[in-house]
Input
Amino acid sequence: MSTRLRTHLACLATCALVLPLGWMWWSSLMPDEYSVMDMGYVDLGGGPELAAVSGHGSEHGPRHGPRHGGGHGSAAGMTTDIASLVAGDRPADVEVDLVAREEPFTLASGRDVTGYTLNGSSPGPVIRATEGDMVEVRLRNDNIDAGITLHWHGLDVPNAMDGVAGVTQDAVGAGEEFTYRFVAEQVGTYWYHSHQLSHEQVKRGLLGAVVISPGLDPAEDPGTGATVDVEALLHLYDGQRTLNGHQGDVPVEAEPGTTARVRVINTDNGPFTTWVSGADYRVVAVDGTDLNEPGAVSGEALVVTAGGRADLEIVVPPNGARVELGGNAIVLGPRGASPTRETAPRDFVDLLGYGSPADLGFDPTDADRSFDYVIGRRPGFHDGRPGMWWTVNGRMFPDVPMYTVTTGDVVRMRLVNDSGEVHPMHLHGHHALVLSRDGVPATGSPWWVDSLNVRDGETYEIAFVADNPGVWMDHCHNLPHAAEGLIAHLMYAGYSTPYVIGGHAHNEPE
Amino acid sequence: MRTVYKVLAWLIALEVVIQASMIAFAVAGLGIWIDRDGGTLDKATFEAIFEGEVTYTGVAGMMVHGINGMMVIPALALIFLIVSFFAKVPGGVKWAALVLLAVVVQVSLGLFGHENAYSGMLHGANALVLFTLAFMAGKRVSSVTATPTSAASPEHERV
Output
């Protein structure tokens, strides 16, 4: 073989290796500014074609070249701007002013950290409202240069109030303000957090709890007698687990016989396990929705997924009880009570068969659209960075499905995790009913979720009614995973967002 | 080019040693953090480790193992294969391809280790295979250079 031929062959072989990689790298680069409506491909879920599906035409995500100008696609004139989807202008019943700052601060535990505060503390203030209240939250960004937003996790607010930078609003820059308004229609436990650079800003403290109480006439109160009602917001600051900012045991005074409700809120990136030492407990609500006829749990732990909530009810025994929360605990009992810590149970509450069935309010068997959300992982490039990246239905961000529905559709979704890691899947703006796991149908109380723990190898079927128009994120709430591209969107035909990722506000939702 | 081939081969072998050291460093430190410092390890904390939020002696080993294994070593193996096309080391392309194959297997076993612990066991064993392949590939250059009349060299002489 001549030297020249050999060199040519070597060059050819090099090109055969390098060129495909170079093309993959180049095509993964994201433009500086794009609309999520241009991402990926339309998925109609087997339902009828829809008019005014904006921005799509190709099977591919945002690429180089001219981007959209004003509206989106030819249907721009026919679509409703999601910025118009607000809560009405009736006077507020609950008004909250929140000032966000980046600063050093001291946790309730006494530990000093540098991060983000709301009104000088993190977690931020608990926002409390009664069912039916108009809630108005005026958010001011004092000094956070990257901009911030507030997303109302689990509250199915109007789309323009959802707080996702680049999707439902522009990030609120330093010195700027934004007012969120929504009607507190859902009784239960929720939380709020930034959805601008969320993987960074949530981790560093831009979050707080929301509790919405039933507006019951005392005469109609069913008489649960729950006289102790506490939030238990878990968050890792600098890698250390805290409970409402505290570390260790947090005593909550409660007389024996009192019924206590502990509202567990997982604000971190992974599921955690909770159990009660010294007493039985009931899981009375999940993700803000009450369960029907929840039975007493003994010797079993409960998994609360990332972003998820669970309300536990405990009748306080004479010696007190401990709600174990990842190394910390809420200690319920009379002053000085010190119930013994029990080790983690080996068995778990399975919400698939917990409680009793009840009316669902819709027929999930009569679905208009059925979607697949199959999570995988493969090597490739994400915005130019090589690595192992998440895929949705076999494709990598931004070439992900745009789940497209129309108002009133009954939607089924099959969530499959074949990626090697657990994913807490969070659908914005809707609550979904769990129908089955790995083919085993749900037999217990209706189990409504906004954050669902889908472990590796599991398949869940869920269903929801498309009753909240707009453009909604449907993503993994392990927030670094979302930043790595584990995101899709649910879009209503006939609606479009004027906001863009990037752009003048430097919107970067994850 | 032969020198580049040799250096890359032994660099990959050295990287395997670094990988083994780093993961043992990380696991040892993790044990001490839990046992002595009262650290609690769960999914969220595990994520925080990779976010650089948890600090203990050895935590850097976790990061180095991840970055080296997922990015640096695959890149080195790919460059090694490209260099082999030009290096004119007898059997050099074959050995470089074997090294790349072992790297692909190694990364896959590491990732499958997240869902199957036995895969992690094979990941440890395959590390030695990769080390041996890379070391032997580098050693070939030395032996070829030292004995230009070896069995493999006639082909080289012709070009």
Q: What stands out?
A: The CA atoms of residues 34 and 500 of chain A lie 5 Å apart.
